[in-house]
Amino acid sequence: MMTVEDLLLETLEMLGRDDFKAFRWHLQQEKPENYSGFGPIPRYKLEEADRLEAVTLMVQKYSHHAVELAKTVLGKMDMNDVVQYLSDRSSELKDVETHKLQPLEKQIKQFQRTMQKHFQYRFKCVQEGMAEKTEEQCLKDIFIELYITDGGEMHINEQHEIRLIRDSRTAAVEPIDPSDIFKSTIGIPLRTVLTTGVAGIGKTILLKKFVLDWAEERKNQEVHLIFPFSFSELNQLKGERISLAELIHKSIWETRDITDEDLNRIFAKLQASGNCDFNNSQYKLLFVLDGLDESRLQMDLMRREPQQVDFDVTQSTSVEVLLTSLISGNLLPSARVWITTRPAAVSQIHRDFIKRMTVVRGFTDPQKEEYFKKKFPDEEQGSRIIAHIKASQSLFIMCHIPVFCWITSTVLQDVLKSQAKIDLPTTLTEMYTEFLLYQIRQTEERCGSKRSIRYIKSLAKLAFNRLEKGNLFYETDLKDSGINLHKVSQNAGVFTEVYKEVHKWKDNDKRKMYRFVHLTLQEYLAALHVVMSLINDNKNILSEKKLKLGDLCTLCRRKPITEVHEIAIQKALSSNGQLDLFLRFLLGLSLQTNQDLLKDLLNTSEGFPQTNHQPTIQSIKKRIRDNTSPERSMNLFHCLNELRDDSLVKENKQNLSSGSLSDRTFSPAQEKQQISNVYSIGDKHWFC
Are residues 602 and 623 in the same domain? Predict the structure, then answer.
């Protein structure tokens, strides 16, 4: 049977040299009518091409549309006799074209079943929290439904993450079922959904559960193909030119059973259709883009009207242009796009590109209990753990974050196993200190005490270095902090669960990226570095004249720790909340009780035994009284909590009871917040 290639070559051999040259020129200008998904063949490819090479390029570019394009070009050249010959002969190809077109309609279901089978294996098991790869568990066994709500028009990028968690406790909003994330309540088609949530809140696990439910044919079976990407991996392709099909094959191993040609046919048909409605799309596709906050790609997503590009979906372009066009709707407008990000990166996308914004708020109070009951199946032990966490307001609030629940369960399980009769950690600093000690013990078993301590010191330095620069860093940042990757790779433990490699590119190991597993862990280590520098090296690294946290190397005479506190308090109050937890950890680590726990990290077991924290306490109390911001006051109350001082709470309770606060110039909202602060923190569990 004659093929398209045979017919085209036979036709082009009928042309003289000048006519063939003109034909090639037209191919550089033309594209098939009614097929806007295709573009012209680049000039550099056609300029020196012979007839056979021209046929190959046409078929690669236009597939079965190549004959129609040849007719168009020959018609513009007034070669009607050749057009007629081509038309007559092309009737023999109808069966071939039908054969090529029809299987795609049938194959899309086969492609769906194949990818579902592969994804069942890929997403069946996950690492919980910061556990090692060998500790993967079945996702269905550990998954607990998350509290997800519509995000509305929240300017969440301007808020500090911990304040977001606290605010979410009082949000009386109808929850969203993750499987209904693209269902509109007002009948408007939803193309692009942006889901936000603080680090560790469960965004990635949520996506994995969504894909697993699809793969196991439980939900969203109307979707033919899902393409899950992570920006941490896409960063490795920064600046490279690649086609959409190539990008999918390189990033998603499970798609290898679908050829480039098949993917290009699907994409070209969707792009050419002009359809923008997923529900009416012939092939229903969902692109999942996880972790926009981790992106280092130069995407321009702030244009209200994105630059219109007549996309040839089969040709290579930069990854940045591909993703920008996909998100903005210029590429595959009928495909759905689901993006996740931490709040700070929301401002990178113009609101007009987003049809729905949702917020992952973590665990509700009952979900927290459900989590710990699963972690501690022994009823008596589980009840003790839950009672302890409920008694500690700081810990109970933070347990909205699933990854913090994992930290808490790891620490408490270790404490109960080895020292069941001691008092359990109650403050945030104590909890993280116990977690760090647990990691040190894990690492000591593999590489010895001295090397473990050296690792922690290097990590603390790195955490402080990156405090204002973000949670992501590269191999060069590790080297600058004195961390030898080759030696570290031989040891697990602390490095597995404090920071991790974001991605090891399958085809290219260059430009590896790393991250701290959670922002709060980075803030704790940064505060630890300040304390270690002051005790071990006589350095006050916060005392730079310009007050820049990034300047670590300036030597200065040791100052009283209360002066370091004053600088840190001022920095935290002048920031937009980014240093709130750093301040709380710094104050907590100044207590002798916490320093005693970390004596192996400090050169002296004495620390600051004679330190009088009263100047710091009085300074904080004055700022609470003078501060007009309830949010700032709330964090300062927590700072007093870390210093184990409850004098202000007792004083305010007495004033509230006597009515003496009525003379204060609080607005009604501020007065309500002040009363809430006093009674929510100053209960019988003050040291929580």
Answer: no
